[in-house]
Each structure stands twice: as structure tokens, then as C-alpha cells.
Amino acid sequence: MSRARNHLRAALSLAAASARGVTTQVAAQRGLSAWPVPQEPSMEYQDAVRMLNTLQTNAGYLEQVKRQRGDPQTQLEAMELYLARSGLQVEDLDRLNIIHVTGTKGKGSTCAFTECILRSYGLKTGFFSSPHLVQVRERIRINGQPISPELFTKYFWRLYHRLEETKDGSCVSMPPYFRFLTLMAFHVFLQEKVDLAVVEVGIGGAYDCTNIIRKPVVCGVSSLGIDHTSLLGDTVEKIAWQKGGIFKRGVPAFTVLQPEGPLAVLRDRAQQISVPGSRHPGRGSCGSCPWHPCSSPHPTCGSGFGTRSGRAGHRCCGAGPLPGTWTARTPPAACRLAYAGSDRRCRAERGRA
Hints:
CATH architecture of the largest domain: 3-Layer(aba) Sandwich
Radius of gyration: 22 Å
Largest sheet: 8 strands, mixed
Order of helices and strands: HHHHHHEHEEEHHEEHHEHEH
CATH topology of the largest domain: UDP-N-acetylmuramoyl-L-alanine:D-glutamate ligase
């Protein structure tokens, strides 16, 4: 047993050395020559996870960005280059019907509610979020479930080998950890043919690597606060400017209730590019908002739409059994995002029919 374990460790050491650009000759000088270099690394799931963990961490990447203080736009350009090297173009992402969500507090739960609502009405969903709690597969989900170890392994090595094959002297062979998983999520969602994909921003919005998405079906902003000040700014207004960077011309955008300062920034961002936006009206205002109760048909595709609560019945505003401000903001915001996303998808499908 120990001999087999030693064999595996040696093979992984060689693979990791190769991934870092170390030649086999140098690896041999380090005492690794007893084991031949495999043509391909082992396809076992744990091997894929170990190789993923050799990539630059998100924390390390953020420290690098802070030190360099270059043009943040280059971060998006680098991501587009990685996307092209992986075999996709930005235009390919337009087929994913993406719901793009940013914020400081509640963006993860808003995404989770949105995905759950869409899935409950028979749509095949993709969901990309971070961080994970137990296993990295949690970050990429299909129909609410982390992708299987087999799917993770398949898509990981497919992407990894593609990036290795397309490297040259002018570029870094492998993206950092978070960027790699973002690329992998796009490949998974396209290949698995999801109906809609909910994508959670990593940090900020304007220069986050997820923001190579150019045609989401709808954008959302959860509660704003102070976070990552060294990158995003030291006031909520500056941070709001960064978060509003995910808005796209002509694409609906929604925000939960915000303080007037950051709300004004979001409004200005939206107006500059003609975004049809809206602020979430809050609890108890169902009569004035366009959300549809579950018992009413979706106006475009004919399905019922909304969320159910024991106290609120078939109402979307105030849905969910949890008390407090979180309940007043997150589930209703998710309902609006899901409604807008599915509505635009249905219209697009009818246009292609």
C-alpha cells in the first residue's frame, strides 16, 4: 500500500513540476527520475483537485494586483485571452442566458434563491458561486447539485490540457485558481446545455473576471457595504461604482433597497448606458410590482412563477420563513431576477422558433 502511495506521489510531483514549467531534466536532477513522466496525468478526481491547488490562490492573486497597481482593465483582457486559449470566444457566452449578481452581503443567497426558483419550474440550471464549504465541486452546480466527480475530472483536464497546449512565451500558461474555475464553469454550462446560468461575482464587479459576460439576461445587486477597500475603494459610493460595473447596455438590472448615496451611484451607472433598471420595492408592496403569484401564468411562457411561504401564501414579496431584513430583501430580489431572466429567455426562444 505504501509503495503504491509513493508511486502516486512521485507521479504527482512530476506532473506539478511540468505544470510549473520545470523541464523533465530539472525534475530528474531533483531525484524524480525513478518514475517515468506520464503522457497525461492520472484522471482521478483527487488528482485533478491536487493539480488545481497548484494554481495561484485567490489571495495570492489579489496581493499581486495590489502591488502592481496597473490598469485594472488589463485583468479583463487577460481573462478574455484565457477564454480564447480555452477554445471559446466571448460571443459563445451569450448562449448561456446568464443572470449576473454582485453585492457585498447576500449575493450568494440571492443567487441560491434565484437558481432554486428557476429549477422549480422545470428549467435546467447552472450555478457558479464561491467559496465552497467542503468540496470544490460545490462551486459549479447543475440543477442545484454539485457536478459529479466524474464531470469535474473530465472538464478539469480538458481545460487544463487545452491551456497547456496553447501557452507561449508571451503569456502565463495557467490562470489563477478562481479564473480557472470561472472558465471551467463556462465550459460545463455550455457543454451540459443549461437553460439559464446564475453567476455570482467574485470581487467587485467592473473588473471581476466574471465580467467578460457581455450579454446577461439580467443583472442584480444585493446589499452594499464596505469590503476589499484596497481594491474597490474606501467608501460605499466607490464600492457601488465597482459593483455597478456589471450593468450592460439594454439589459435589465435590479437592486435591493440601498442607502441613498450608493443607490445614486448605481442609478447614474445605469443611466449612462441606458439600463432599464429598478429598485426592489420591499415587503408588502405586491400590488405595485410586476411579480406574478404562483397561481398566475407567466405572461410569456405560460408557467406559474413565484415563491411560496406558509404565512404569505402564493406571494413573492415577503416570501420565505426567515424573519428580519434578510427576508424582506433577498427572496423578493431573487424572485424578480428569476422572473426577468426566464422572461427574456422565453422571448429569445420564441424569436428563434
